[in-house]
Design goal:
Blueprint: E1 2-6, E2 9-11, E3 17-24, E4 33-38, E5 44-50, E6 57-59, E7 67-72, E8 77-82, E9 91-97, E10 107-111
Parallel strand pairs: 2-10
Antiparallel strand pairs: 1-3, 3-8, 4-5, 4-9, 5-6, 7-8, 9-10
């Protein structure tokens, strides 16, 4: 059972990245999912959530209007499209089921010129 994130990297301010979170060993379609990030020296910060069928989405105020969460249950994948990135978005981003029954290892996002 695992969640594997990908798509992180180094991007300039104003740029975009799309993170993917792919599940193996469990039925991701049965779970609400979320993205959480943790910047160096700080605690975890919830970023966004999506219900099991994708019908409802929520965002932290800090990313609202810039990030979009989506999912494809047939592909067992949840996505986070990140646009207009800012240096303060730099963090390790990880995906998890809503109650963190399952949680990935994370992918590094660095926003810097």
């Amino acid at each position: 059972v695992q969640l594997v994130e990908s798509g992180g990297g180094l991007v300039q301010p104003g740029g975009s990245l799309r993170l993917s979170c792919t599940a193996a060993g469990f039925a991701i379609g049965a779970y609400g999912m979320k993205w959480v990030r943790q910047a160096p020296g700080k605690g975890p910060e919830w970023v966004s959530s999506i219900t099991s069928n994708g019908g409802s989405k929520r965002y932290a105020d800090s990313v609202k209007g810039r990030f979009t969460i989506s999912r494809n249950n047939a592909e067992k994948t949840v996505y986070l499209q990140m646009n207009s990135l800012k240096p303060e978005d730099t963090a390790v981003y990880y995906c998890a089921t809503e109650r963190e029954t399952y949680k990935g290892q994370g992918t590094q996002v660095t926003v810097s010129s």
